[in-house]
Amino acid sequence: MVFINQAGGSGQTYISTTPTLSGGSGQTYISTTPALSGGSGQTYISTTPTLSGGSGQTYISTTPTLSGGSGQTYISTTPTLSGGSGQTYISTTPTLSGGSGQTYISTTPTLSGGSGQTYISITPTLSGGSGQTYISTTPTLSGGSGQTYISTTPTLSGGSGQTYISTTPTLSGGSGQTYISTTPTLSGCSGQTYISTTPTLSGGSGQTYISTTPTLSGGSGQTYINTTPTLSGGSGQTYISTTPTLSGGSGQTYISTTPTLSGCSGQTYISTTPTLSGCSGQTYISTTPTLSGGSGQTYISTTPTLSGCSGQTSVPHRLYQVVVVRPTSVPH
User: Fold this and answer.
1) Domain end point (choices 48, 66, 84)
2) In whole angstroms, how far apart are CA 243 and each of 155, 189, 190, 212, 226?
3) Beta bridge partners of 121
4) Range of the domain at 57
5) Distance from CA of residue 200 to its chain's centroid?
6) 225 domain residue, yes or no
């Protein structure tokens, strides 16, 4: 147990268990622990990783700065690095500043059972408001080589009561799996909510998920709810989606259930969803098709643009055409 210098406030506590370095050569641990300043009742609790059983392991972490408010709490459990060579964990944790009652809770991934595993994450900045909450469960990387997880999580700024809840995918059982996601920016109003369940990638090699989620700005009560597809049971599966922009009005709602891709190789889903702008009460509801049981299935759809008036509703009900082709190459 180490107590750092108490500066600028009362009741500051820092508790840290630093790593065990054993069983290998070339192990390195570099950490800059937080500065606690400018408030009362600040608490930082961290359990740092165990490095064992391999060579060339590296852990580099810059932990947060807690300043400018009362009752700030940071709780983090960092990963276990074991059973392989060349493991690397690089993380920049958040800055908590400018408000009271800020809370950051994160459980970071376990890296085990393979070589060359890499986890790179930039976590959010919480600033300029009260009662901000960020809860995230990051993925488990296990059972394969060359797994990569790259994520840039959202910026929460300029309002009160903002909430971001995300469950990111599980990568397991294959090689070369990649997950790249840019999550939304919540800004400029109160009561914004983003709820997303991202896909499960399992049972195949070369799986790729690329998604750009929406920007919510300029209105009150905006809600985005999206359930993205499950990719399983084949190689070279690709899901590419550009979801809508919600701007310039109040009460906008987008609800979409996207397709299930299962049981074959080379499946491709490409969809451009609508833009909702310039009016209130717009609603878009769409249920897209299920693609299953064949090779080279392709679904391409451009959904409508809703703009310039109130109360627009689009409910697609036409039978979509499914074109079966044999892909010339496996997408990555």
Assistant:
1) 66
2) 19, 21, 22, 7, 9
3) 91, 151
4) 1-66
5) 13
6) yes
